[in-house]
Model the fold of this input.
Amino acid sequence: MSIDHLLDACGWTLIHFLWQGTVIGVVLLLALACVPYARAQLRYLIACTALTSMAAIATLTFAWEVAQPAVVAVVQESKLLEASEPSAEPVPIEDRSIEPASLTEVPPAIEMERIGVGTFTAPTDNELSWAQWLSVGLAPWLDRFVLVWSVGVALLALRLAVNWFAVQQLRSTGHTIEEVRWQEPLMRLRQRLRIRGSVSLRQSAAITVPMVLGWLRPVILVPTEMVSGLTPGQLEAILAHELAHIRRYDYAVNLLQNLAETVLFFHPAVWWASAQIRKERECCCDAIAAELCHGPLPYSEALLAVETFRSSTPLAIAASGGSLLQRIRRLTGQPSRSPQAAGAMLVLLVVVGLATIFALQTSEASAEDDASTISDEQATKLAIAAHAKARAIDRLPRFYSQIDYRNGDVATMTAEEVVSLENLRRALTEPVAEEKWVNIDNLLAWDATRVLSESLSHRNSRDNDGGSDWYAVRYYDSKEAWCQERSGTRPARFFRLPSFEKSWQHSSPLAYQFIQATPRTFWWGDNDYHNTCHNRVDPAIVTYRHLGQEEMGGETCDIVESKGRAERLWIGRKTGLIHAALYYVYYGGKSDLVHEHPAVKKIAGQMFPSAKDYYAWYRQQKSQLTSAEIDELGEAFFEANFDHMANASCFVQFGDYQEISPGAWYPFTQDRIVCHTSKEGEGKYAYIRCESRVKKCTTDVDLTERIEKLKPQTGDFVQDQRVADAVIEYDWRDDISQAEIDHLVQQKQLELQKSQELIDKLKVPMQKLVGQAAPPLTDGKWLGEQPQLSGKPTLVHFWAAWCGPCKNDYAILNQIAKKGQVIGIHPPGTPADDIAAAIQDGAHVYPTFAAAKSDEDLVGGYPVKMYPYCVVLDAEGRVAAHGSLHDVASKFHELNDAVALAAENKEAEDPQESPEEEKPKDAKLSFAERQKKLKQEAAPYLQAMIEAGYRLDDDQNIKRIAPPFPDSRAKWYKAAHPSQYQSIPAGPDLLTFHYSEGNLESWRMVFGGQHIGSIVETMFDIYPQNIAGPSDFLSTQITGDWVVRPEAKGEKLLPELSTIFNDQLKLNVKMRFEDQEREVYVMKGKYKFKPLPEFVPKEDAPRHAYSQYDTIEIFGAKAFPDGGAGGGTGTFQLFNQWLGRWIDVPIVIEATNLPEQNVSFRLHAPSPATPVELQMAHDPDLVLATISSQTGLEFVKEKRKVRMLVIEPGE
Done:
């Protein structure tokens, strides 16, 4: 096929597209005219279809032209016939009389057609149709058309390339926005839109409007002047709009548009269709953003704010092009109008348009308009009165309420993308499958001297596991508090409690949402704990604002909301009763702004640089604060963080109010909606409906006979918890005397005393060192840089690789090491490699001295006999304190702060430095400012590391950088971690970085080496119980730094990591994931959280800082309320992984009714501990028994297929 033929085909394609594009453009115009008010998504698809059709028909036309050589022959023959006389008779081509000179002009295509066509009859002028005449007339110009078209395509392609380079420049010059007020809504909206990949958020002074750059690794770029000039609502609206572009892959579609415009630039219909796509695209994203931002009005205001930043006359400029006004009209369902006049008329049109928008908003916007009719003062009085009315039952001398309670997953809402008030309310009417209901009978009753709370959980037929009912009751007779638990046919267990009030606080009366709706004061105690009250802050000290009105419960309700109580109420105008309540949950603690609230300064008498500093003060001063001051500080927390941390969490509707006593109204129906993480996909939520129906409610029931039947009988097991430091167990007898019980308590205390005496005896040699110079650490080996043990206080931690309780201290020590000097001392007898492996596992950021064996049975010169143990050295190197980490931490901080203060005072009094030369001190910066400063100072070294090889190619997910390391690594460590550099100048043995968007982000540092097992745990996010391989091989030490893509997880890394192990490290290892049959524990039954009575909230913790989740204690033979081995908060699956890690056996979940939200868990082990004690602390049967007692779950040992990472060393 000749070039000339292709050029002609291209020319004819351009000519044909003139009419083809026009036809498609007209069809598009008519189609859009038929759906002027349709959803933007439909209009967008119509416009995309039109542009796609234009590109497709041009491609098909070109292909058809290329495949039709005969047509080309006709045209070319016609050109020849112009030089010869026409013949009336058909003449064979080979017999024509043509001058030789003319033959030289015949293109090769004609020679081909002489074979394919045979004969050709040239038409006369009268026989030529208009199409033929057009073809003959245009044929000589085809090459010129193609030339002009080629120049145009080249220029537009150049423009496209320039724009692409400009985009890359914007990506590289933009500065990352690290402010929490931007990052938190970004993370939240990403989850709601199910955007899985990473999205960078940056600022640039080179742009005037927010924009999205990139597709595979998108970047949201925001004008610098907008970063601090937007309200939280406007900020969230902007992010929602830009994330909508990312979710819809608009960047890729826009790129295809640019290609279509470049190739078909000569046709106006292409540009018009493309413009329609862009316009409808913005409207599509506006619709998504408006839905995420609670309606069109708030989002419209955000659009106006963006225009304000673009120009000093934003409305006029925006309206002149019709863009802003038309987008707002589309959001509110209004017909799009073009401006009819200029100047003053244009401004008037904008004003009228905005007035129309406000007039035609949704019911929520109408409610906000109505809010102006009731002031904040009136709304507050209304809410206070409603709460007071709800508390009328507190004063009743007798109360008896039986409730049928049930809960179940809403069948049609098991994988929702967002948690919102709209979805919470919709879940009230959606169906719940009958077999999904869990039924519980509840009873709450009291009289003047007794109180009773019962729960009986029925096992549904869907379980079919042979299980039976579970029963729990708490009661109090003004003398003693008891708790009874029973499951199926198992004998009842009784717990003798120190007080009913604490037991009441730890109960979770889900069936009694009306009890939890307001702070209450009962004769036995207050419901001032998060389990029994949604918010304990007194409604009388907060402010409510009016949001509007709504019909509910058969009357018009005022909707009022309080930031200080994190609640929204629907209050009946006629009755003053609470018909519904929306409660918010707070998360995103990194942006906690409580320390900035005026109430904090008023009560504390000072301002705090951070929330952390405020909470430290609170813990110290809480015992001296009044109840009113504690309430006011609680309100400060909720109010200060409402706008950026509050998220709709629970919606409750109260109905069928009945007056059970004069002035005391009680709702006989209580419907509650909550949600939890869905099992059907990441970023999705399942909704649960909880229904309570009152069977009986009265004020004249005598509880005497019922409570007598609940007391223990002869032979029943009793755990007596009345003496906190001596919990005892015994079999009940009716004639058991208090003297016998006291004797058991004394025996228990004596046993504990002997243990304490042994500990005190072991401490005596160490006590003799107090005030003396610390022994020199000379006989041994330093793992890490040897520090200077004078000039600053030092915390010495005696630990051992074989010591389980020692691990409890690692995280705390790492935190302390950021502000002061910490060293570890390891006793002799353990190989250095094992010590290094333990250091790596514990992620120690401080050096350790491995002591050599001593004839005097000393460890580094210290008479240490138990582990873990701590010693504090003062700045002069003298022993200042010793004991557990808990015992000595305050002394170390005291000494460290004193040294720091002395240094600051000396620097402030130094006359050698003039004010002009004085530089800002990092100590004057906030934590966030210091972190930002350090990051900026370290950035050049990170870039140098990238250039030195710390980068990933496009097809790489992981890379190992072998030593020796580049100089930029040490410089980065010194600049980014100056405090650690002071303690460990040699730096970490291993660094791991995340690599994204061409940038490095520090992930983790390891001091003391790293072994294969730890590497695979980290890279595959897997737990030890799911790794199969020889322990000696898994402990093989590995050197080198690592660079990993953060989005690369699990099996995706397997091939590359295997290649690194085998090719670079010559380990000859095989790794694979496979399902193996292993002995596991299967978790069965229904989850029902019952906190252990001996675990009560820490007295020094602020009430609003208490965990909002179930807290499960993990221990073996014995609990240690004041000890611990770590813990955390996360999904139930995370808890299960940690539980399996603790007992070193995989656990398969087959339980039902799992927690709606996260759970907290705490690990416990004795410290110091013998090997036997450590074994009992981790014994699977003992540990799982304690879990069963708290959760109602059962654990059965079975053999199951488990996904395992198998690591096999080669020969």
